[in-house]
């Protein structure tokens, strides 16, 4: 695969992105949805239609979209088609600068898709770019808990699906990739705080949106030599971000789990409360591309969860 890996933030023009089509299995009733930790039952025929909405919107924006399920061996595909969470590709890996670091599933239900995708990534990018052994201890790290703020700083949550030990194991790789600071926040352990991107997001080069309770949480700041603490507002301000605190405690994942296609354009769910993206004066001119993906969102994640950027034009 002739793919350039280049991601230094969350907002530059997206050039190449990984996705995965939904499973072949329905989640037929509310009890099954509860048992597999989904929000609602899902009809996979409809889910596939909404997945095509996602793919077409990005392709229409000139983005190269790779569906990794198309590259699996026949044997792997037979298993993959039955993995209901496989379309949440964000968690599998992350491109830090030009280096790709592997994730590790925080729940056993998701481990097969990590193994399958990592073998593909190793084949596509080779061991120099994809550091497949970076977290060999197997500590949980799902990249819905990670934001690349800029060329200096990363923000990571330790919570239900990401361990502090995994961050310690990977920090030197992140620093070697070119970043100078890692901010670690610790969200409450609840289903609605499963990942950092269910509670916050980068909305522009200098605007960060976050649920209002997060202003009370300190951040541990790691460099290659030191560790210190700051409040979240101070940490983000120091790295050039205004923080827009959302005060609507009832807002859903769809409201905040969006994807920046370029500095002027955001891909957002039709179910999202778009007022959140218009409150800050620097966001009023943003172009919002709305797509229907609510059948996919019933799995408990949003558009950002369903996309893994490989290349942004910086």
- The appropriate CATH architecture is 5-stranded Propeller
- The strand line-up of the biggest sheet is 5-6-7-10-11
Largest sheet: 5 strands, mixed
Assembly context of the chains: single chain
Write the CATH homologous superfamily: L-arginine/glycine Amidinotransferase, Chain A
SSE succession = EHHEHEEHEEHEEEEEHEHEEEHE
Number of helical stretches of at least 4 residues? 8
Portion of residues in beta strands equals 15-25%
Low-confidence stretches: none
Pfam family, one: ADI
Organism: Pontibacillus salipaludis
Protein name: Arginine deiminase
Report on the architecture of this protein.
By secondary structure, the protein is of the alpha/beta class. It has a single domain (13-313), classed as L-arginine/glycine Amidinotransferase, Chain A (5-stranded Propeller). It contains 8 helices and 16 strands. A hairpin with a 2-residue loop joins strand 8 and strand 9 (207-211). It is globular, with a radius of gyration of 18 Å. The model has no long low-confidence stretch (mean pLDDT 96). This is Arginine deiminase. It comes from Pontibacillus salipaludis. Pfam families: ADI.
């Amino acid at each position: 695969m002739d793919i350039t890996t280049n991601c230094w933030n969350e907002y530059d023009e997206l050039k190449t992105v990984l996705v995965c089509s939904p499973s072949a299995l329905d989640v037929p009733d509310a009890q099954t949805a509860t048992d597999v930790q989904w929000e609602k039952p899902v009809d996979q025929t409809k889910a596939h239609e909404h997945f095509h909405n996602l793919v077409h919107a990005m392709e229409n924006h000139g983005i190269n979209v790779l569906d990794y399920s198309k590259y699996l061996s026949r044997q792997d595909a037979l298993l993959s088609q039955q993995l209901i969470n496989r379309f949440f590709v964000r968690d599998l890996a992350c491109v830090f600068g030009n280096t790709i670091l592997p994730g590790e599933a925080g729940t056993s239900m998701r481990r097969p898709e990590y193994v399958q995708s990592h073998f593909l990534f190793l084949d596509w990018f080779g061991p120099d770019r994809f550091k497949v052994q970076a977290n060999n201890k197997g500590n949980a790290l799902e990249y819905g808990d990670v934001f690349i703020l800029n060329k200096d700083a990363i923000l990571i949550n330790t919570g239900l699906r990401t361990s502090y030990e995994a961050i310690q194991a990977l920090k030197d790789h992140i620093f070697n990739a070119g970043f100078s600071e890692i901010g670690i926040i610790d969200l409450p352990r609840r289903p609605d705080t499963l990942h950092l991107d269910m509670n916050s997001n980068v909305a522009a080069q200098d605007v960060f949106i976050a649920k209002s309770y997060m202003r009370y949480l300190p951040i541990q700041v790691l460099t290659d030599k030191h560790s210190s603490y700051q409040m979240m507002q101070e940490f983000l301000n120091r790295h050039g971000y205004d923080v827009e605190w959302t005060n609507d405690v009832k807002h859903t994942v769809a409201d905040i789990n969006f994807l920046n296609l370029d500095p002027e354009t955001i891909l957002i769910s039709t179910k999202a409360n778009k007022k959140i993206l218009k409150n800050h004066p620097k966001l009023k001119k943003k172009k919002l591309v709305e797509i229907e993906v609510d059948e996919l969102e019933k799995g408990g994640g949003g558009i950002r969860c369903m996309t893994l950027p490989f290349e942004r034009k910086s």
